[in-house]
């Protein structure tokens, strides 16, 4: 009496999944217009400590010079933006803010779009991996069924086979553990002999 075990899906099933890796970074880069690239570069530059330090140095220099020139007239310095109003400084900084704010928002939207593309690609890869794992598990179950059929055809009881496998597995683990424990000692003795 022979038992028919259904054969699991093969390599063809993996190919039929149709999920191929794609370079979403390249796709995103190719989809950007010149203005998009410029907005991204500005967003990246404005978000650095270098830009912060540049603005800090500019602010300290501008306000410091004009404060000193306004408060200490004996130095002979002429303030070009008198303290305490700093009208020119406020005008320039507000214009910079008005120009940078929309550019930064455009850049952040583009970065968000790129992140969404990467997340979708990760999701597709995870789906493919899940399907591949399912196929591998079905292969393992198939192989397990074949092994059990072979064991039963040899006249070995299922429980006896499991005891034998457990015993052999424990012996193999013991051998591997002793080899792992001895390996560093062998390496150190080999190093000492090489040094002398």
Question: Looking at the structure, what is the overall shape?
Answer: elongated
User: What is the overall pLDDT average?
Assistant: 82
Element-level helix/strand string: HHHHHH
How many strands, which pairing sense, and closed or not: the largest β-sheet? none
Uncertain spans: none
Helix and strand composition category: mainly alpha
Q: Strand share of the residues?
A: under 5%
Number of E-state strands = 0
How far apart lie the N and C ends? 69 Å
Supply Rg. Answer: 36 Å
Number of domains: 2
Q: Into which percent range does the helicity of residues fall?
A: over 70%
The number of helical runs is 6
Could you explain how this protein is built, in words?
By secondary structure, the protein is an all-alpha fold. The chain folds into 2 domains: 21-155; 157-196. The protein has helices at 11-16, 24-31, 34-46, 49-71, 87-153, 158-195. The radius of gyration is 36 Å and the shape is elongated.
What descriptors fit this protein?
2 domains; 196 residues; mainly alpha; elongated; 6 helices
